[in-house]
């Protein structure tokens, strides 16, 4: 290929290359020819060569050697060369390269050029790659061009001013007067740029925001003119007059009306007019309506207007476009807590979205459906959710199961319905439930003493039918071990009669023990259940002894230890076996302060508190290393180590969920376990609060509701005094090993700005030895998209107010 070929010929040759190697060869030869011509002092084809080099750059090949040629062409007096030079600067240069500083003077000269087209080239380049230093040097020139007579120049100068404000926010005050004057322009391009500029100024300066609130009537007038104007070939898109400008004005009105009654009142009528007169059959109209809804929900609007906005989102749910349905459910999810009744009217449409083929739409519909569950509709909604659980994709089963557990915990109409619902989930998606489901269900069954016979019969049927669902098998084994005598009687009135013999029960448990699908934890449940049956049956005790002895040489250490100790009960302590293996007592959930997402076995509480917005109201446990880091802060090398062995309080064998020996989790259980199950009365005196943490606007206060005694109730109250919302707030606490700690569920996990709401969390302490009390609290939260974590040491506690 000749070095002097035209750009079109070079493109044709490159496209006709059959292999990538052939293409590279063509480009290398052409780049070598371009370098040679760049070295010539007088080259009339410089712009032609740079244009070819820019095409090479677009293909992804190196073209940095053309940067200085861009600087030379920008300084050229010819418009065609200057145009290619500015284009090359925008593509090959950026603000981090020294070569960009060389064009600052050329841009300044071109901004004062007599031709508006040369001025526009300089404005576009500055708006594209201007550095902070260039913006500071050229800001006065941009302010002058904002007052130019040509709408063409003012439009480009406005967009350039937007770039300057984003790069150097302190220069915003320079453009404030000119930005206000631009609102009087009739040209839509200038108006569009002016609205963007004012939006940037208001977002970065509170004083500027106050100033531009006076322009709300002017913006309302412009917006009303767009809504009522007729067809215009220059601006109308799908029957909507300039939807791009309308969307920008609505976003600016949302900023100006936020937390301001006067500005909100001035735009209420306009928003109602836009919501009722805009056609949503086209995408352009849907975009305008969506921005209208966001504005209505963000300002202090009237209640009727908010209902109208929710109805618009409800119409979006019927749209054939999945993207529109998705953003509709996303918006409804944000407002369901404040306008629950209005969103509830569209429950049927939302539930229908669970059948959508798109996975993202299904996920949003699931989250919104779970948020709409209440005590009134719990039965109908749960029927739909259980049907969805049986057909949903595998990646949604865990989320759906957790949400169903949480809803059943909060709104269950009866204990039997609650148990049936959880068992249905375990049968349908047992492999996808969280680990804490098993101890929580066991506690629920234990408390429902009148349903023991019904539950054990139902679980036995499920165990015989399928042993692949490990959580279901674990609960079934536990119930059979506790209430196997009820199963043998076969006189349950609430279920179909079933004749079960002792051999049938032991056969089922042996099948679990020998199955390759059973995990070590499940085998532990089955072995413990088998052992407990030795006190509930009379004719097969020798078979039970034989089964237990087999696992005395099991490869699994924990299972082996259980079997050895159970054998010891048979041989050395047979007189104690009945007392050790007696039924578990009823646990008072209210005194434990637990919800469905919290740890459920043996009064043990997770270190990290729960989040009410997450399914099952639980945060996943921290890795062992992080737990150890927190515990090490309060560790005592002279403290006794965690005693091993499978026997719990009173000598009763614990299930595998209650044992975590030999790990950081075991230390955690020993540190936090053993809480008393009797509720502590709350004194009538008002607690005195002290501030224990105050940083970056997040304030944490601590108050004690009873004196420093063996039992104590502490309340942690978090507020946010900054100007930015705080989300994903979690509190962790650790105390010395002699003190037992239990954290109840927090009241929320988000803190709105300016102390508009608080989050409280109650901590129960049991200090039987009355040792010197100290606590370490770890705060984790997200602010402005960035995660933060900090730790505070509390060595003294306030006394309650009198």
From TrEMBL:
Record bears the keyword Transport: yes
Listed PROSITE patterns: GAE
Keyword rRNA processing included in the entry's annotation: no
GO annotation (BP), single: intracellular protein transport
Upper lineage is: Eukaryota, Metazoa, Chordata, Craniata, Vertebrata
**Membrane topology summary:** Peripheral membrane protein
- Pfam assignment, any one: Alpha_adaptinC2
Gene3D superfamilies reported for this sequence:
2.60.40.1230, Leucine-rich Repeat Variant (1.25.10.10)
State its location(s). Cytoplasmic vesicle membrane; Endomembrane system; Golgi apparatus
Q: Mostly located where?
A: membrane
* PANTHER family for the chain: ADAPTIN, ALPHA/GAMMA/EPSILON (PTHR22780)
Q: Which family does it belong to?
A: Belongs to the adaptor complexes large subunit family.
Q: Which residues form the GAE domain?
A: 685-798
InterPro entries, A to Z: Adaptor_Complx_Large_Subunit, AP1_complex_gsu, ARM-like, ARM-type_fold, Clathrin/coatomer_adapt-like_N, Clathrin_a/b/g-adaptin_app_Ig, Clathrin_app_Ig-like_sf, GAE_dom
Keywords annotated in UniProt: Cytoplasmic vesicle, Golgi apparatus, Membrane, Protein transport, Transport
Record's GO cellular component terms:
AP-1 adaptor complex
Protein name, UniProt field: AP-1 complex subunit gamma
Q: Where is this region: Disordered?
A: 590-617, 635-659
């Amino acid at each position: 290929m000749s070095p002097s070929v035209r750009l079109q010929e070079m493109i044709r040759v490159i496209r006709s290359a059959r292999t990538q190697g052939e293409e590279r060869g063509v480009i290398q030869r052409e780049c070598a020819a371009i370098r040679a011509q760049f070295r010539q002092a007088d080259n009339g084809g410089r712009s032609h060569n740079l244009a070819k080099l820019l095409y090479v750059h677009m293909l992804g090949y190196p073209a940095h050697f053309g940067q200085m040629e861009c600087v030379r062409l920008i300084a050229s007096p010819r418009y065609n060369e200057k145009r290619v030079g500015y284009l090359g600067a925008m593509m090959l240069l950026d603000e981090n390269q020294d070569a960009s500083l060389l064009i600052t003077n050329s841009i300044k000269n071109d901004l004062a050029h007599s031709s508006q087209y040369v001025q526009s080239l300089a404005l576009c380049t500055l708006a594209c790659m201007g550095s902070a230093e260039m913006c500071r040097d050229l800001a006065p020139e941009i302010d002058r061009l904002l007052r130019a007579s040509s709408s063409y120049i003012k439009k480009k100068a406005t967009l350039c001013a937007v770039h300057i404000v984003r790069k150097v926010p302190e220069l915003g005050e320079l453009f404030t007067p000119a930005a206000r004057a631009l609102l009087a322009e009739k040209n839509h391009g200038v108006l569009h740029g002016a609205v963007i500029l004012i939006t940037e100024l208001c977002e970065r300066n509170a004083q500027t925001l106050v100033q531009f609130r006076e322009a709300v009537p002017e913006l309302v007038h412009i917006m009303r003119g767009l809504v009522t104007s007729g067809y215009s070939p220059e601006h109308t898109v799908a029957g909507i007059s300039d939807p791009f400008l309308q969307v920008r004005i609505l976003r600016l009105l949302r900023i100006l009306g936020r937390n301001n009654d006067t500005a909100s009142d001035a735009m209420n009528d306009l928003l109602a007019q836009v919501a009722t007169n805009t056609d949503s059959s086209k995408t352009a109209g849907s975009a305008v309506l969506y921005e209208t809804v966001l504005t209505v929900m963000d300002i202090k609007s009237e209640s009727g207007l908010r209902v109208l906005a929710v109805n618009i989102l409800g119409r979006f749910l019927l749209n054939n476009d999945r993207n529109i349905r998705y953003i509709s459910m996303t918006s409804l999810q944000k407002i369901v807590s404040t306008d629950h009744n209005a969103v509830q009217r569209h429950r049927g449409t939302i539930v229908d979205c669970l059948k959508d083929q798109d996975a993202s739409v299904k996920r949003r519909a699931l989250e919104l459906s779970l948020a709409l569950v209440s005590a009134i509709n719990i039965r109908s909604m749960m029927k739909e959710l259980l049907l969805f659980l049986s057909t949903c994709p595998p990646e949604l089963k865990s989320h759906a199961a957790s949400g169903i557990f949480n809803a059943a915990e909060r709104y269950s109409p009866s204990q039997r319905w609650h148990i049936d619902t959880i068992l249905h989930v375990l049968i349908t998606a047992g492999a996808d439930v969280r680990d804490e489901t098993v101890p929580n269900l066991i506690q629920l069954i234990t408390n429902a003493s009148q349903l023991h016979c019904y539950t054990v019969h139902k679980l036995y049927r499920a165990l015989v039918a399928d042993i692949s669902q490990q959580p279901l098998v674990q609960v079934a084994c536990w119930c059979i071990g506790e209430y196997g005598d009820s199963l043998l009687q076969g006189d349950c009135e609430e279920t179909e009669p079933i004749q079960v013999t002792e051999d049938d029960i032991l056969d089922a448990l042996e099948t679990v023990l020998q199955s390759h699908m059973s995990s070590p934890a499940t085998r532990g449940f089955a072995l413990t259940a088998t052992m407990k049956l030795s006190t509930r049956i009379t004719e097969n005790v020798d078979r039970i002894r034989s089964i237990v002895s087999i696992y005395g040489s099991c490869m699994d250490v924990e299972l082996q230890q259980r079997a050895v100790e159970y054998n010891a009960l048979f041989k050395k302590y047979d007189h104690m076996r009945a007392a050790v293996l007696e039924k578990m007592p009823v646990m008072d959930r209210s005194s434990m302060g637990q919800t469905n997402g919290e740890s459920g076995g043996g009064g043990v509480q997770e270190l990290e508190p729960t989040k009410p917005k997450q399914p099952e109201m639980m945060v996943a446990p921290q890795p062992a290393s992080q737990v150890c880091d927190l515990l090490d802060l309060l560790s005592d090398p002279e403290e006794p180590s965690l005693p091993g062995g499978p026997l719990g309080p009173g000598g009763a064998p614990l299930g595998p969920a209650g044992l975590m020996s030999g790990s950081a989790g075991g230390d955690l259980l020993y540190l936090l376990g053993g809480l008393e199950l009797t509720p502590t009365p709350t004194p009538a005196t008002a607690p005195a609060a002290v501030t224990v943490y105050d940083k970056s606007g997040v304030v944490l206060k601590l108050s004690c509701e009873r004196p420093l005694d063996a039992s104590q109730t502490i309340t942690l109250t978090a507020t946010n005094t900054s100007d930015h919302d705080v989300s994903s707030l979690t509190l962790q606490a650790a105390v010395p090993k002699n003190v037992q700690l239990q954290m109840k569920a927090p009241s929320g996990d988000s803190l709105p700005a300016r102390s508009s709401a608080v989050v409280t969390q109650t901590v129960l302490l049991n200090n039987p030895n009355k040792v010197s009390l100290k606590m370490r609290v770890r705060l984790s939260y997200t602010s402005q998209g960035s995660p933060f974590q900090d730790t505070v040491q509390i060595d003294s506690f306030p006394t309650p107010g009198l």
